[in-house]
Recover the amino acids of this structure.
């Protein structure tokens, strides 16, 4: 046994043991453990395999600077859980990710044999011949992290808003100082801390603060306007002081896996601490090699001693605190410090605790594969030695965690020479940095720094800033100065020095990138993927920057940092979504007739903008094609009725509506009589059709404008911008009434018979209600407004009623139509009918590239209006490109051959640029064969020609005909 | 997520609005421009890196269209600078 749980110590609950499984092993831990600390307590050193090379890996950091992921199979499967921050759960089953069969024996380890073929950017160089796609599935399968769990699993997460006067990031000494200061002034405070319990380094390093942290937390917890979040990480600092926080297993709702917060704060104090970085050396990624602060954290937070024989390797004072702690817990400790002068007081303290100090020494290499067994080192005088050990704890310096400040783009990275790291310059607006995040490392000084930051933000929001008690300084080994050593050079060519563990990036990869000309730090990052893994380079990036500086001879401050972007830590999409997914995020919209349609067996389609409409109503034994054909035939031969409620409808009121319609439509609308309607084609100002519909003049100053279902929101925005921005001098009000009016549309030769049978209290004869006319009145007791419009090539009446009468109207229509064999009609049949009749549809023929002349609607373009939207652009475009794609009909030589919508038409069916495409294809009920509409270059002059559709390797000949197959003279429509 | 001050409704979150893009001047008379000028007015935008005027439609509340000055880099929303000519005709 090497790593073990100590009999005392740690802030775990030893009265609550938890059993769990990992990679098939039955183990146990305690409440308050993370998955990582529990595994370490059980001396499971090898917990995963690296991303690319599948090298054995253990825990390197104790928090977000680590990268080891596990998958939880039960309870509630979840993958890619960061083991060092995921709380241990009772009776949970965990497995390592991206290993097979497990971490100890992984078939992927074979990748290490190919490591010379897998340098940075290998996918541009190796595995290219004969075809990259032969190797791709295997390589993609070997890399990557955990498998996505069974899709039946529902995420148990919540998304929540919050707001406060002061948000404090981190509850270490600086954060507690800031939070207490702000809270004592009466400001509302949210204190967000990553750890199981607040205190930060005071807990993780086991510092004696005389109880200051506990007293502070106790006081904060009594205040009702202070909220303390544990196990919560601020992951994004967004515009206007909106910060996002991911809270794991919330203390107030332990049934939740995750809660994502969106918090608006008036001021922010960033006391996020600092991340330790290693000194990279050969094979420094072996299990058992970790950061010195991690060894300390496992010890003080979880009572786990990571090894019995420890070698510490450092270039700064903070490792001495780790050395003393490990020795005090019973390990045999050797401290290899690269600095030649140990300092008198420190050397004495170390000797007293039994720590062997080797000043001016350097660790060269870790020995051991699945676990570290020894280190090779060089003494100051050049002697080589091998030190047996089971734990190597490394400290190469500390990197202030100012990522959040940088995300605001108001802070710049500045090189701090004495600390050999980057710090952030202050943005003086809406946040302050404090404590280690600002480069202050001594605990007492951090608390004072936090207090001062709290006072500064309180002044910014006009509150009085009190002073608070501070803990006495008791942190003799804070890292005050660092002698930077970016890496220990390897002695043999094949030795690997890892600078980024998450991406398996070595110093050789950095040299390769620079050799190939990727010399800016942003390019080095992207070419090698350093800093792009799950840890986002928290402990590796500054080393990478230092190495790039050393290799290029540039000062580190000139190399600079890469850009910091959210998320600061990995965040599950399910947490951001919370309960908002599928239909809860985008609800379906149903007409008031939905129940009737479903009771009739309708198969529902989305009609646009989340509207549900019946696609067809199948009888027993019918498929969609058969049902649609039957419904269409019923309309052609008798009468049908369809639910047209989702159609966009806008009420326009005011004396200047006529001017508005004349501007937005291509035709003349000013002279439309009261009680009449006109078909309008609407163009955007760039001269292309955006929508079409019929507008009716209800009264002198009142119109009803229709749009297609899917374009209703676009048309609404279009009209509002004209009325509010471009012509505010016009008196027009635009009121969307799409959902106020339901409609049942009768269509077919017997449509008038059914209307008369409904006993209208108005004259429904042909003369009184002509084509494009309207009538208002009642059918029985139901108020209706009837528009005589048609989209089916048959006599048709659109019966509009206020939505609350829809169901009653529909029942009346079905009853009155029964003697005529009335059939409910779905959108599939509607589609057949309109294609036969040659009517255009937004989304098919109107695809955003056609103008009215292209679609054969040139006769509708006003000859007198000097200006309307799109007029000039259309003329300019047609002058530049006179040969256009034009609307035509298409008949396949094989009368039963269907063509998919969008099928390209090419000369001879060759694999060349298209000369047109199929916009709609249906089986005609009047011609009893397949027909189609399409756009074809110079189509109108090619009627009678044979063209070809190219569908993969099939060539389908088609005869070009006029784009109308039924009621070309509109006699039925006008009957 | 931005916070936008609607002159009628007060400070509201971005989700209540639809962004209508750069605040272009009211539609000019096509007859007054050359073909090149007309095409440019339809297609080209200044796309400023820094402070610019843009329109937002408060569709989920009062339905009015308003103009704000926003810095496209820092997202700070500021009062209209006295030195810059704001497009006319919109509050």
């Amino acid at each position: 046994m090497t790593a073990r749980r100590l009999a005392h110590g740690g802030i775990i609950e030893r009265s609550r043991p938890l059993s769990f499984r990992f990679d098939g092993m039955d183990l146990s831990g305690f409440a308050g453990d993370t998955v990582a600390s529990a595994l370490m307590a059980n001396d499971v050193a090898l917990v995963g395999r690296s991303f690319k090379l599948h090298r054995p890996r253990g825990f390197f950091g104790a928090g977000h600077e680590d990268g080891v992921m596990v998958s939880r199979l039960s309870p509630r499967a979840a993958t890619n859980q960061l083991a060092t921050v995921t709380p241990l759960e009772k009776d949970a089953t965990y497995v390592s990710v991206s290993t097979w069969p497990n971490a100890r024996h992984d078939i992927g380890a074979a990748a290490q044999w190919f490591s010379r073929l897998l340098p940075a950017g290998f996918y541009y160089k190796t595995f290219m011949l004969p075809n990259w796609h032969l190797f791709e599935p295997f390589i993609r399968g070997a890399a990557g992290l955990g498998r996505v769990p069974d899709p039946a699993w529902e995420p148990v997460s919540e998304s929540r808003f919050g707001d406060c006067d002061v948000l404090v990031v981190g509850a270490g000494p600086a954060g507690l100082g800031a939070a207490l200061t702000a809270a004592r002034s009466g400001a509302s405070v949210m204190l967000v801390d990553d750890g199981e319990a607040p205190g930060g380094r005071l807990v993780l390093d086991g510092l004696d603060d005389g109880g200051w942290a506990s007293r502070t937390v106790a006081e904060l917890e009594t205040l009702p306007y202070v909220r303390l979040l544990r196990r919560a990480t601020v992951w994004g600092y967004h515009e206007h002081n909106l910060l996002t926080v991911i809270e794991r297993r919330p203390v107030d709702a332990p049934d939740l896996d995750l809660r994502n917060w969106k918090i608006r704060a008036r001021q922010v104090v960033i006391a996020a601490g600092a991340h330790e970085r290693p000194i990279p050396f050969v094979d420094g990624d072996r299990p058992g090699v970790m950061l010195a602060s991690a060894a300390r954290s496992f010890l003080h937070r979880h009572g786990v001693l990571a090894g019995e024989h420890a070698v510490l390797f450092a270039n700064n004072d903070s490792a001495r605190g780790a050395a003393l702690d490990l020795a005090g817990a019973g390990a045999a400790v050797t401290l290899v410090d690269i600095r030649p002068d140990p300092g008198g007081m420190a050397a004495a303290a170390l000797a007293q605790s039994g720590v062997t100090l080797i000043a001016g020494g350097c660790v060269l290499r870790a020995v051991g594969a699945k676990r570290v067994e020894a280190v090779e080192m060089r003494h100051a005088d050049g002697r080589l030695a091998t030190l047996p050990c089971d734990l190597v704890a490394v400290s190469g310096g500390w990197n202030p965690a100012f990522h959040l400040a940088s995300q605001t783009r108001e802070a710049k990275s500045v090189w701090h020479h004495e600390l050999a790291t980057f710090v952030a310059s202050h943005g003086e607006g809406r946040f302050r940095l404090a404590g280690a995040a600002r480069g202050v490392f001594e605990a007492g000084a951090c608390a004072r720094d936090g207090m001062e930051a709290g006072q500064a933000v309180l002044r910014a929001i006009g509150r009085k800033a009190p002073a608070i008690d501070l803990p006495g300084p008791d942190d003799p080994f804070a890292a005050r100065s660092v002698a930077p050593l970016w890496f220990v050079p390897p002695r043999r060519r094949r030795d690997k020095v890892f600078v980024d563990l998450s991406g398996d990036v070595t110093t050789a990869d950095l040299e390769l990138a620079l050799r190939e000309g990727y010399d800016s730090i942003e390019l080095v990052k992207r070419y090698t993927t350093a800093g792009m893994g799950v840890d986002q380079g928290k402990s590796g990036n500054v080393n990478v920057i230092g190495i790039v500086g050393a290799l290029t001879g540039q000062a580190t401050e000139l190399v600079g940092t890469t850009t910091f972007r959210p998320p600061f830590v990995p965040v599950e999409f399910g947490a951001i979504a919370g309960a908002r997914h599928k239909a809860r995020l985008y609800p379906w919209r149903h007409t008031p007739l939905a129940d009737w349609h479903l009771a009739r067996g309708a198969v529902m389609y989305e009609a646009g903008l989340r509207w549900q409409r019946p696609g067809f109503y199948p009888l027993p034994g019918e498929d969609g094609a058969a049902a649609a054909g039957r419904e269409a035939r019923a309309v052609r031969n008798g009468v049908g009725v369809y639910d047209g409620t989702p159609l966009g409808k806008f009420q326009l009121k005011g004396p200047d509506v006529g001017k508005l319609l004349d501007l937005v439509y291509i035709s003349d609308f000013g002279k439309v009589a009261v009680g009449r309607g006109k078909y309008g084609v609407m163009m955007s100002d760039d001269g292309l059709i955006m929508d079409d519909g019929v507008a009716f003049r209800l009264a002198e100053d009142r119109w009803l404008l229709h749009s297609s279902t899917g374009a209703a929101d676009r048309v609404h925005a279009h009209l509002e911008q004209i009325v509010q921005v471009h012509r505010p001098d016009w008196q027009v009000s635009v009121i969307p009434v799409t959902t106020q009016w339901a409609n049942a549309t009768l269509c077919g030769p017997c449509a008038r018979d059914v209307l008369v049978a409904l006993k209208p209290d108005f004259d429904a004869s042909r003369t009184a209600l002509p084509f494009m006319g309207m009538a208002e009145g009642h059918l029985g007791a139901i108020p209706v407004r009837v528009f005589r419009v048609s989209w089916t090539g048959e006599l048709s009446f659109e019966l509009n009623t206020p939505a609350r009468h829809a169901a009653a109207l529909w029942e009346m229509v079905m009853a009155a139509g029964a003697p005529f064999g009335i059939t409910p009609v779905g959108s599939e049949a509607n589609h057949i009918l309109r294609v036969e009749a040659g009517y255009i549809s937004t989304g098919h023929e109107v695809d955003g590239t056609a103008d009215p002349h292209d679609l054969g609607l040139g006769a509708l373009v006003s000859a007198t209006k000097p200006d309307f939207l799109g007029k000039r652009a259309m003329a300019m475009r047609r002058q530049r490109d006179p040969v256009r794609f034009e609307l035509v009909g298409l008949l396949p030589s094989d009368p039963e051959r269907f063509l998919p919508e969008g099928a390209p038409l090419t000369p001879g069916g060759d694999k060349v640029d298209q000369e047109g495409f199929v916009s709609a294809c249906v089986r005609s009920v009047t011609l009893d064969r397949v027909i189609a509409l399409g756009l074809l270059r110079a189509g109108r002059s090619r009627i009678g020609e044979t063209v070809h559709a190219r569908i993969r390797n099939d060539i389908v000949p088609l005869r070009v005909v006029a784009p109308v197959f039924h009621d070309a003279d509109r006699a039925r429509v006008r009957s | 997520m931005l916070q936008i001050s609607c002159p009628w409704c007060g400070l509201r979150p971005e989700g209540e609005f639809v962004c209508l893009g750069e605040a272009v001047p009211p539609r000019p008379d096509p007859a007054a421009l050359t073909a090149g000028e007309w095409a440019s007015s339809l297609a080209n935008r200044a796309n400023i890196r820094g402070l610019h005027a843009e329109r937002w439609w408060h569709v989920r509340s009062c339905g009015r269209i308003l103009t704000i000055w926003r810095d496209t880099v820092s997202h700070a929303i500021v009062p209209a600078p006295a030195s810059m000519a704001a497009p006319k005709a919109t509050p």
